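Review this today:
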Amino acid sequence: MPDFSQFLQLGQHVQGRITQMQTELAQRTVTGSAGGGMVEAVADGRGRIRRIKIDPAVASGGDFEMLEDLVLAAVADAQRRAEELYREELRKVTGGLPLPFQLPL
């Protein structure tokens, strides 16, 4: 018969490692881009946008719809990269075991 106290200790250990991982991810950054690098979005490892960089040549054209689309695409790319980083780090913490719930970023 399994020892449930050991199971609970393991759960607490994994939870502690996940909390530590989330803190570390807040310090890491990923960059998403669009328009061949004309617009870049930098996000932390949890997906929060920290900076937007726009090539002045894009803004000088006056096509603000295109600029808005590029910003949106760069942000989506940065958030996708942050999610990939999060999932990769989570796999390391959990030893590749699937978790039955979605953890908040």
